[in-house]
Amino acid sequence: MVINMRFAFNLLIISILAVCTWFFIVSVESKVYYRKVFRFILFSAIIMYLNRLLCISMEEGYLTSSDALLTTERFIHYMFTLEIYTLYAFFIFCLFDQFHYFSSRKKLLFFLPCIITAALIISSPWTHLIFWVKDGVCHKGILFWLLVLVRGGYAITATIKALLKRNLMIKVFGQCVILLAVFAGIQAAVFFISGNETMYYSTLIVNVVVFVLAITMVEFYKDDLTELFNQKAFKQYVSKELEKQKQRSVYLIKLKNYEYLSDNYNKYSICEVIKKLAEYIKEYTMLSSIYYLGGGRFCIIQHKSDKLNEKEFFDRLEERFCVPFEIDGSSVNLSLFAAVMNMESGKINKDNFYKYFAACDEIRYRSNDALEIVQADTFNIDQLQRYRDVEDAIERGLVEKEFTMFYQPIISTETGKVISAEALIRLKDRILGFVSPEEFIPISETNGTILEISEFVIDSVFKFVSEHDITQMGMEFIEMNLSVIQCMDENLNNKLEYYIEKYHVDPKRINLEITETTNFDEEKLKQQLEKIKKLGFSFSLDDYGTGYSNLVRVLEYPVDVIKLDKSIIWAAFDDRDSFVTVKNLISMFHDVRRKLVAEGVESQTHADRLKELGCDYLQGYYYSKPVNQTEFVDFVNKFNNKI
């Protein structure tokens, strides 16, 4: 009866291990590195317990014992216990420190004790250094203590690391780490005090089961796409552990182009970009406290004990994002936004953390750089409320029709008459009052209301041209601004055709004004513009002289008019070199049959000098600020008729 119980007990353990292995494989996708390591631990444990059955079979007389069979059993036992403890330590290091991204040299140093000990075990049948078998008895060699030391060293080091860093993980995992440490202590005590292998193997299986359950539970806090912790895990950490664990910094990393990708590429392509970005962040930081919050947003929590070099991390990210991504066969320039929240400054704490985090999450992008970095300590938290107030104003403006169109005249230097006008949208909210387009346009592009606003602009401009005979007024066309997001809208062509038909407008009477950018698929943008140009529209390029202006690139766009930004116009009257630059620009663009509009004309001197330089059109407050539709019509009629 006793014999049967011993054998049955180990069979039960093997059955439990087999079920755990099956459950782990079918319920958890073993793509993440630390899961792959744990899978090897499970397989090794099964082999070790099968070997345990071999040992019992010899002890109880089920199998005829021999020195060769006992040597085999001891060899498997020592090799696989060594492997399990080594893999356990590797699993913990990969889980908490992204150790699999470390250099090959560091990995070799980590595994060196295991490799040396394994070599001694393999050679032991001849050298007797770890063990030897004689007359059915297993003897310990002179270096057996090394095997015990190496196994114990891996186990103790990994357990201590897990205990110290348990709060970096979700709560249930931290609790499992404590349970593991308790049973590991029991296991060690049983082994050294009583030498009872049955109790030793029993506590070992408990540890394995605890970790299977822990990893399975962790899946509820994992993002399926990136394999990082999800938003639920992030909220739990912030509510329970923020400030307790002595954080140094919190980083919010956002993919600026996420909305654009969502509108123009299939879900699979977007997922591939997000997964690549997740891999870069994991590899470049080698930290475990990384969360994916959805919408192309990542959060990294750096602790004082972490060896993260912030500058090196950002440099590597920027270096990668300076190179275009291949998406669906086209090259797309992507860019990142990073907000750094310094927890050591004392300005950000648990009470106001979410306010700062939300403010950083909703801040407007300020550059087209591959990586834009903002320090949250310099960020005014009041801007968050303003941001949300403006969002509400946009919603009210669309529903309650509080948006209006203003027009700013553009004067021909040849005739001195109003030749065209730029249509500009304005918002006068009943609560906030006047809201600048420089404020509400970027917010609308971020929250997706820009397309609704653009519908209002297109409809208003077409309606204005339809209701007023602009050629009779002496004008050639009205300029209408289009954001790049609008230009990349695949339905834009159909929308414009619809409004041509609706208002019976000659597309030659409308000029579409675009702004140069490098953040989108330029080839696709050019194709879109060519299709629209075939409808009869002309194009202007706004703000030339800022950002990424490049003469060669500009000439690749099907634009008829170049608008020189007011910053270079003003600089031309303060600095001789800038004046020469503007003069040469005008000459070069004339050589390639482009017309020039000078923005920001604010005095008679500006107007006279720009006429001398050969600039075709002038626009600025010297002639008129943007005015509403009625005032504009009156202005044009008076201005053109006085000439």
CATH structural class of the largest domain: Alpha Beta
The general outline is elongated
Radius of gyration: 35 Å
Number of helices: 23
The largest sheet, given as strand count, sense and whether it forms a barrel, is: 8 strands, mixed, barrel
User: Helix content range of the residues, please?
Assistant: 55-70%
The strand order across the widest sheet is 10-11-13-14-15-16-17-18
* Name given to the CATH architecture of the largest domain: Alpha-Beta Barrel
CATH superfamily of the largest domain: EAL domain
Helix vs. strand class: alpha/beta
How many beta-strand elements?
19
The fraction of residues assigned to DSSP E strands is: 15-25%
Could you characterize the architecture of this molecule?
- The mean pLDDT is 82.
- Helix 2 (33-59) packs antiparallel against helix 7, helix 12 packs across helix 13 (382-400) and helix 13 packs across helix 14.
- The relative contact order is 0.06.
- Helices cover 56% and strands 16% of the residues.
- The chain has 3 domains: 2-220, Up-down Bundle (Rhopdopsin 7-helix transmembrane proteins); 231-379, Alpha-Beta Plaits; 385-642, EAL domain (TIM Barrel, Alpha-Beta Barrel).
- It is built from 23 helices and 19 strands.
- The longest helix is centred in the N-terminal third of the chain and has 31 residues, at 67-97.
- The protein is of the alpha/beta class.
- The protein has an 8-stranded mixed barrel, surrounded by 5 helices.
